[in-house]
Amino acid sequence: MKVRCPHCGEKSIPLINRILSTPGGPSRCANCSGLSYPGEWFSLATSLLSQLLLIVAIVGSIWYRSLWPLVGFGAFLLASFFVPAFLPAMPTTAEKAARTRKRTTIGLVLFVLAVIAAGVFYEP
Ligand SMILES: [Zn+2]
User: Fold this and answer.
1) Distance CA 79, CA 83 (A)
2) What is the 3-state secondary structure (H, E, C) of 10-67?
3) pLDDT value at position 112?
4) pLDDT tens digits, the chain, 124 residues: what are they?
5) For the whole model, what pTM was predicted?
6) Which H helix or E strand runs over 96?
7) Cα first-last separation, the chain
8) Contact at 8 Å (CB) between 29 and 13?
9) Measured in angstroms, how far is the CA atom of residue 35 from the centroid of ligand 1?
10) pLDDT (0 to 100) of residue 104
11) In the 8-state DSSP scheme, what is residue 109?
């Protein structure tokens, strides 16, 4: 099964590539080499929501001295990779994708530091 490319309109992108594509790692069209990723509003919503949820997860982990809020945040991040496959794709460029990758890396580093901090302050 293949999904439509927003650049040339051909059904040329394998569904699995669409599922795995993100604003930072867009899927490439086999027909025109155009880059695309799932819906912009969804990416914006998940980006804002994940930043909010990350803060809630960090505070929750420290407050309850538990890793579960951070595990829940991880599950949310995982789900946000799969849901966009069923939404219309957005065209993008290599430069835009690189900028997004940089932002995502900073977010992941903060997340890992938060997990370490929660582990350090965890007292059963
Ligand atoms: Zn195309």
Assistant:
1) 6
2) CEEEEHHHHHHCCCCCCEECCCCCCEEEECHHHHHHHHHHHHHHHHHHHHHHHHHCCC
3) 94
4) 888 898 999 999 988 888 778 888 899 999 999 999 877 666 677 778 888 999 999 999 999 999 999 999 998 888 776 676 667 788 899 999 999 888 888 988 999 999 999 888 877 7
5) 0.53
6) helix 94-121
7) 49
8) yes
9) 8
10) 83
11) H
DSSP string spanning 62-90? HHHT-SHHHHHHHHHHHHHHHGGGGS-EE
Q: Give the number of residues written for the chain.
A: 124
Please tell me the predicted confidence (pLDDT) of residue 4: 87
Ligand 1: distance of its center to the CA of 67 in Å?
43
Q: How far apart are CA 32 and CA 26, in angstroms?
A: 14
Q: How far is the CA of 6 from the centre of ligand 1 (A)?
A: 7
CA 30 – ligand 1 centroid, Å: 7
DSSP letter, residue 5: -
Token representation of residue 17: 């590539």
